[in-house]
TrEMBL record:
Domain of life: Bacteria
Protein name: Dihydroorotate dehydrogenase-like protein
Entry's Gene Ontology cellular component terms: cytoplasm
Pfam family, one: DHO_dh
CDD domains from the UniProt entry: DHOD_like (cd04739)
A GO MF label: dihydroorotate dehydrogenase activity
GO biological process terms held by the UniProt record: 'de novo' pyrimidine nucleobase biosynthetic process; 'de novo' UMP biosynthetic process
Entry keywords, A to Z: Flavoprotein, FMN, Oxidoreductase, Pyrimidine biosynthesis
Pathway(s) served: Pyrimidine metabolism; UMP biosynthesis via de novo pathway
Domain Dihydroorotate dehydrogenase catalytic: 4-290
Cofactor field: FMN
Length: 330
């Protein structure tokens, strides 16, 4: 039987399939089921800095309509919901660690380097094997420079690394003006890994009701290619781990990401669609492909087609269709 083990964030994984941060990983029961079906690790549903703050603001807003509330009560209330969510999250880490043997990666979704970084220490104490930081602010402020926008990433990483010895990874978006440079700088600043790329909520427009509504929540099977490009380009330029995510729906797309140089993949949408049992199907299909190709270990082919190692490195950087457009006929 071929050996699927891989190393990610310094953790030894039995195979490259990690269940991505989502509602799929928000309870011990679900995590146990994922492990039983072959998941090599899970990233817990994120605890959201924004969500906590919003919840606190809402409570405060409700209270202002009551004339008998004293200002000290605000201090009390503004702390309580945060502690509640935090306590629940830390309990989930502890209970999950006790219930399964696969690595548990905690996840914080944040919008600043303020206030919450103490939580990283608590997460480490609770027993998490690593911490993934999902940080993104859409750069819509016309008066902020690229540096101002991007320095926050390094500040967050630094602030968290000062609190913990845990491996810390950054889940990033493709929307950066100088992506390769940024990933290199995160790598040099001690990120144990990068997760490329987060999938975002996108607005859509309902043309019948003339209103805004939610775009599609789950990814499609063709959405993996931008990640593939950047995994290939960055593989031999950074030393940190790379996890590929978004639109990875089949054993074929997992194998492609591994060939481009990913250490692991993170799946959410396809597990929502097909259920936990699909992980077992995926690993069996990877086994068959490896046998067919004569690979005994995952490491035998990981990164074999990265930009530096492939026979057509320019293909990773080709963005215009040129001759394809010229010859294209319907
Ligand atoms: C319903 C749903 C909930 C998600 N929640 C989170 C989250 O809490 N934190 C996070 O970092 N990513 C979250 N994600 C993003 C996933 O972790 C994943 O990176 C993204 O969906 C791309 O992978 P996919 O194409 O396999 O879905 C969520 C995705 C979905 C579909």
């Amino acid at each position: 039987m071929p050996n699927l083990s891989t190393s990610y964030l310094g953790l030894e994984l039995k195979n490259p399939i990690i269940v991505a941060s989502s509602g799929l990983t928000d309870s011990v029961e679900k995590i146990k089921e994922l492990e039983e079906n072959g998941a090599a690790a899970v990233v817990l549903k994120s605890i959201f800095e924004e969500e906590i703050v919003m919840e606190m603001d809402e409570q405060m807003l409700n209270m202002t309509s009551r004339p008998y509330i004293y200002p000290e009560t605000f201090d009390y209330m503004s702390n309580e919901p945060e502690e509640d969510l935090v306590r629940k999250y830390l309990r989930l880490i502890k209970e999950a660690k006790a219930a399964v043997s696969i690595p548990i990666i905690a996840s914080i979704n944040c919008v600043s380097s303020q206030k919450w970084t103490y939580l990283a220490r608590e997460i480490e104490k609770a027993g998490a094997d690593a911490l993934e930081i999902n940080f993104f602010v859409l750069p819509t402020d016309l008066n902020r420079s690229v540096d101002e926008n991007e320095n926050i990433y390094y500040e967050v990483l630094k602030a968290v690394k000062e609190q913990v010895a845990l491996p810390v990874s950054l889940k990033i978006s493709p929307y950066h003006s100088n992506l390769a440079h940024m990933v290199k700088k995160l790598d040099d600043s001690g990120a144990a890994g990068v997760v490329m790329f987060n999938r975002f909520y996108s607005p859509d427009i309902d043309i019948h009701n003339l209103s805004l509504n939610t775009g599609q929540v789950l990814s499609g099977a063709d959405d993996f290619k931008n990640t593939l490009r950047w995994v290939g380009i960055l593989r031999d330029r950074v030393k940190c781990s790379i996890a590929a995510t978004t639109g990875i729906h089949s054993s074929e797309s997992i194998i492609k990401q591994l060939l481009a140089g990913a250490d692991a993949v993170q799946l959410a949408s396809i597990i929502y669609k097909e259920g936990a049992g699909y992980i077992d199907t995926l690993t069996k299909e990877i086994y068959s492909w490896m046998e067919e190709q004569g690979f005994e270990n995952l490491r035998d082919f990981q990164g074999k087609l990265s930009q530096d190692k492939s026979n057509d490195p320019a293909a990773f950087e080709r963005v215009q269709f040129m001759k394809h457009f010229r010859n294209f006929v319907m």
